Amino acid sequence: xxxxVDHSCTLDKIISLCKxxxxxxxASEIYGGQxxxxxxxxxxxxxxxxxxxxxxxxxxxxxxxxxxLDSAIFQHHKTWEASGHVAHFSDPMIDCTECNAxxxxxxxxxxxxxxxxxxxxxxxxxxxxxxxxxxxxxxxxNCPTCGSTNRKYTAVREFNLMFKTYQGPVADESHLIYLRPxxxxxxxxxxxxxxxxxxxxxxxxVAQVGKSFRNEIIFKNFIFRxxxxxxxxMEYFCKPGTDDDIFESWRKDRWNFYLKYGIAEKNLQWxxxxxxxxxxxxxxxxxxxxxxxxxxIEGIHNRTDFDLSQHTKVSGKxxxxxxxxxxxxxxxPYVIETSAGLNRxxxxxxxxxxxxxxxxxxxxxxxxxxxxxxPQLAPVTVAVLPLMKKDGLAEKAQEIRAALKEEYVTxxxxxxxxxxxxxxxxxxxxxxxxxxxxxxxxxxxxxxxxVTVRFRDSMEQDRVKLSELSGFLxxxxxxxxxxxxx
Length: 486
Ligand code: GAP
What we know:
It is built from 15 helices and 23 strands. By secondary structure, it is an alpha+beta fold. Strand 14 and strand 15 form a beta hairpin.
């Protein structure tokens, strides 16, 4: 019997495509790999930067009241005492005493409940005490690493997730330094400078993109959870009492970002936090339907006046805002935060775009792998392909590519049949292929000085005048409508 081929999107297929086509590689692979670290290859770096640029454009250029910042990774160590990270930023861990494997206790339970929904702790895992987690694990879960059924585990303890080191040659408390576990604290410590230097009036936001570091106990699922990752965060400062409405408005706004760039609404859902982080009054996650299930890609938090008040307390500097539009009242602003993971966005947009699509007829199937990426996110916007290498077609194609380069990220490919070249571009999500044929260069052809533009999603082609090509592509990008996958 003929074996049925699975054409669905799986994480293994995404990992394989990423490696094969230069999106993402295992870091230090020649040394056996560095756990939880990934390198972004030539296409990956373009794609990641496009997501970041789309976010930046959406959050700053489209919001007149949001400005940008790029604060240092190294902040004074007191920053992290004030923010509560030294005392509270930890995960519960548990070890198997037979093989010494270490697990995040909450994740161990979540994974178990996922595969055994009939056996559950009867309450959300994030509201369980250490003792409740330990009792549940002892009663139900064999060690996933060594398989021991003895269930000899340590107690559940908290493990702080911040990486710490010392600045300079002296390793004492005064030289202690942390790698930031979130980008936003630089926004809070710079709050007064931003207000004064740019004459900002509340309400306003500050956006920032940058690396964050967390000493995660478990990394799994490719780039989903890593020790080094990038966050795209925006802190919106507002008057206390207006925070609930602003929170709701940012929730809608952030949801719409994902729709705008091609995520189908059915693949998004909200997760409301039962147990709040030490700084939050209310919190929702936007979750995406990854091949591993719905998981968080972004958090929206009402951080109240927690951070600014804490920095006032610990630094001794007044972080209050004088509201000239409200009789010079002085208050500590509330903060609504939108905090998205750039790497998780990368993975979500890739999974959403991936399709193994049957472009053949019934009984004569022909599958192509295609990434239906939004043209503003795709690593290459336009590939220029000469029909043949000879007769001046290659030279003409290079000339056209050179003209497009100033405006678009281009690629050039002359090897193999045009059909194969289209497939190679489909697999990396190139939305437009421009093909140069004999009509393009034949003076007495009615199609002289025209090319074909082939659309990745529909595979249809249009004949376009060379003089209008750049504008044609510009309009096609502007009017792009995400495809609905079957
Ligand atoms: N400032 C708030 C904050 O950092 P968070 O929910 O801990 O909130 C925000 O993180 C986002 O950062 C998450 O939604 C996720 O996309 C990303 N993120 C967090 N930890 C991560 C990790 N270990 N690896 C990759 N991305 C991570």
